[in-house]
Amino acid sequence: MRLLRAAAELLANSAGAPVSTRQITQLAEVSAPTLYHHFGDKEGLFDAVVAAGFEEYVAGERDFAPSGQPLEDIRRMWDNHVQFGLNQPELYLVMFGNIRPESRPAIVADAEALMEEMLNKAAAAGQLNVQPREAARSILAANVGVTLMLIAEPATERNLELSTMTRDAMIFAVSAEPASGPAPGGTGKSSVVVAAIALNAALQASHSDQLSRLGTQAFPRMAPPDLHQPRRLASKPVIPSSTSS
Predict the structure, then answer these.
(1) The domain containing residue 145 runs over which residues?
(2) DSSP letters spanning the chain
(3) pTM value?
(4) How many domains does the chain have?
(5) What is the tens place of the pLDDT at every residue in 52-90?
(6) Would you say residue 120 lies in a domain?
(7) Is residue 96, in this structure, part of any structural domain at all?
């Protein structure tokens, strides 16, 4: 555990500079053979740091009983995410703060998948106006940004209300409006989009053969034409010729 903590601290404070095995072992007050015995090499230790951090992160994100209201549960996941970062800033910076151009950390994709899992339930309930994957990316991006900003501020000056406002704004941005009917002069397009997303979420959980039957039953007139049957051309109307008197 001392090696993991030492490696996390050095990585978080490295500003992108290389971290040596000697730095890690000196901070952890252990010998290099101890590091090699437990982790194989320095990269193995770094992988273990991220893996251990993600396990702890997932445990925190799931540390509540589902309320049956997916968007409310997303709020709780947001708050747990921020609290995890504030409780363990060095570890959080290793997991989410070491971003390089055109290099998306696997940890971010895993965190998005965790959030998307909950958003799929919201979509199936007709509560989203964007696809769950897009919503997960948007919400997590804001969640990480707010957490990094709060970590950077002195603890006595942190305004957690900023996190609450950003959280609610993001959830409002991806959530469907209450079903109160289209506004006067409106086209009802928003409700159609929400219904389509809800249907797509439901279908994603279905079996492929069930999807095939459903499509045939719902759209019987959209079956592909039989290309082996001769094509019938519409007959031209007969125009009577005029007779001269």
Answers:
(1) 2-179+188-217
(2) -HHHHHHHHHHHTSTT----HHHHHHHHT--HHHHHHHHSSHHHHHHHHHHHHHHHHHHHHT-S---S-HHHHHHHHHHHHHHHHHHSHHHHIIIII--BTTB--HHHHHHHHHHHHHHHHHHHTT-BSS-HHHHHHHHHHHHHHHHHHHHHS-GGG--HHHHHHHHHHHHHHHBPPPSS-PPTT---HHHHHHHHHHHHHHHHTS-HHHHHHHHHHH-GGGPPP-TTSPPPPPPPPPPPPPPP-
(3) 0.64
(4) 1
(5) 878 877 777 777 778 889 999 999 999 999 999 998 887
(6) yes
(7) yes
